[in-house]
Amino acid sequence: MPTIEVGGVTNSTGNGSKPLSFNGDKLQLNFGLTVLAKNPNLLPIYVSDMNATAYYPDPLGTANAYPVGGGFLPYQELPKYSDFSFIFPFSIVYDPMTDPDQIILNDLADKCGLTGSEPQDLTIAYTIQVTARVLFVSVHPTIMSQSTFPCPIQNNTVL
């Protein structure tokens, strides 16, 4: 059975985008998630249309979560009998219209160490929809999980 896990954050976005960008009034942090995949099978696995939506937990402790970005990877082969890693392009998008009281912005600034506090890891929940194909059989699983990783910006620099 293949396994896939997020191994960490890298400053490479895997798609050539700039680490920090603005789109209108939205701030976008672009980075890559290093994905570690193990395929112990005799056949390669072909994944396509990996579409992730990221959710930021409510800093006030309610059960709410706010969509804050995601990522897309059109295609990746997982070679047979392999321990393999690849970069999944990912973005956190801050939209002030969905955070009128700046609760998420303040929490991100604190956790990234931009307010003078010690940097902390970010925990992001995500949903990934993917197509996986082996030979002529395709499946369309939806993966729901969360990952914890260092903030991609710290001390006014992008990692």
TrEMBL record:
<protein>
    <recommendedName>
        <fullName>Late embryogenesis abundant protein LEA-2 subgroup domain-containing protein</fullName>
    </recommendedName>
</protein>
